[in-house]
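Practice problem: AsnC family transcriptional regulator
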Amino acid sequence: MELDRYDRSLLAVLQQEGRISNQDLADRIGLSASPCLRRVRALEESGLITGYHALLDAKKLGLSLMALIHISMDRHTPERFANFEAQVGALPEVLECLLITGQDADYQLKVIVRDMDAYQVLLLDRITRIEGVTGVHSSFVLRRIVDKTALALGMD
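Answer key — structure tokens:
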């Protein structure tokens, strides 16, 4: 899909303010309401906009411990990876699962839990029990320096 300046502007605003009204969005980017709505719907139908989400404050929900976990697998087979990915995908504490290269690990997980006790349960009772997991290395996040959800759109 070829994006023009209006599409890029729509995407930039929607990434920051997903609940903005169509009229306010149209006013912000310099279009009338009908063409603005048509463009947003086209971006949604193309799959470029995949959804709208509320961002929650983890600390206010009692989730104060974030960890990055590097996972090593015993075998690099599609079946082993598919099983691991399915099981990890079902864990609500896992915010992100990345298949990586350049490390001694195969995956990096970003998880968030209440405290160290909850982390221990997640790690020892759930993650390390997944078939094929042979190595685990944990790092704990002290502070988030950059925490974005918006993608750079190359707008000049």
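Discussion: The first strand starts at residue 65 and ends at 73. Students who identified this feature from the tokens alone can consider the problem solved.
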